[in-house]
Amino acid sequence: MKRLMAVGAVAAVGMGILTSPVAVSAAPQANSPTTTTSSVVWGACPAGYPATIQCSTVSVPLDYAHPYGKKINIVISRAKATGTAAQRQGVLFVNRGGPGGTGVAYAQSVQNRLPTSLKQAYDIIGFDPRGVGLSHPIYCVDPATFYQAPVPDPIPTSRRDIAINTGRSAQYAAGCLSKNGSDVQFYNTPNTARDMDVIRAALGEQKINYLGYSYGTYLGSVYATLFPTHARRFILDSNVDPTGVWYDDNLGQNVAFDKSFHEFLRWIASNDAVFHLGTTEAKVSKAWYGMRAALKKNPAGGVVGAAEFDNAGSGDMYSDSTWPALAQAVSDYVNKHDDAGILAQYGPTDLAGENGNTIYTVVSCNDQVWPHNLQKWYGDAAKQYQKYPFLVYGNLWFNMPCAFWPYGARQATRVGSTNVPNILLFNATGDPATPYDGALNMHKALRGSKLVTVTGQFNHGQYLYQSKNTCTLGYGNDYLLTGKLPKTDVTCVGDPHPTPTAAAAKSQAKAAPGLSNDLPGRAF
Q1: Helix (H, G, I), strand (E, B), or coil: what is residue 97?
Q2: Among 21, 152, 198, 368, which residue has the least CB neighbours within 10 Å?
Q3: What is the spatial distance between Cα 365 and Cα 356, in angstroms, rounded to a whole number?
């Protein structure tokens, strides 16, 4: 699931031209570990990226079945280890999710969050995956026209509504195919994992360490499956269910997001002295859906209608740190007829945002064949909507381009089919984007892994992102520093929801939170 409207500031520079680093070429076999004597030459990153990181490019095959055919360039970054040669433990690849999330600037973001001992130990390696940002970006539609707000309400009330939204999904798929031709079939998770191994070889490393969030857990598990001898220490946080790629995983999201939304409503009710939307969940829900109906009839600023309001709500379910601003925006609209707060939640999808949407769609559609029977899509959505209405139809139309997709693997990569190294997993029990049951399935697939369960927590992203939680930080830091896994699966208690004040909520509501490149997993 991805918010369609907002993009991060750093992502907007994704069309910059990288000129100083030298490209490194490698052409591995399709399914074998990579070896090469090439070396990376580091240089400055484009304007707009942190000056503290270095960048380079690595050339990879578009199609690994034809390694000496067409090449594309992958842009990588390095936040260099701060320690001595004796303290250094190698490279730590990082991925914040997606598919479609940018990663070049993310190397610095992760290093900033690490304790000194880990800053000293690892070169943090970020990268824009194939098709993303600086790495041969691809697009499906013109964002200025396709996302012109307000877009149609995703929740249908007639057959015409269904036809309109189905048509938009078909139009998006057609745009992907017409703009990119048959090359589009080679943008998938296994090829991105193979790209990572080319990068590993170009860096001269025998093994990599890895920290991946959300979709990044699937990418990391696929890499460890394809290249088990090149995987050292892997942390997978907020885990994709590898058995549900990707149709079933989205059905699971619909349930989990709805549960998070109800938690949000209860939280607002418990803070009625601040938001004045009602002292019960039912009263707050009535205010929320009353506002949605009003926005559908008269979009705020002419742009924030029902769909845009839904996107703001679903985007803010990823982290309760954004709840105060959203709740205040709703309060201002309902109680004061002030739409400034909800307008601040909106940002039009630009070219960088469309690039993220494109890769989400293309990779998702290519990883495994989706159902082509539209009646199955409609039937599953209608059934879920009766109990879990919050996300169902927005998620349906966003993923339905895959119903019109001519490519796709017959079977997704079977994670854990080879002997993978011991891996540390984190997952919150209330995570909306990667439900907890998926983490249990990932844990089962990756034999020898250990799972850190975070209870009472509804946020997406645990290790490094719940900064006050010494329990999750302790397990993650110790593992990356020493390789020591817990003897058994363990539990950490999640951080409590924020306690808002009227002044703080009001201040936050005035500024658009958008999609931060510092947060994990905002795409899947």
Answers
A1: coil
A2: 152
A3: 14
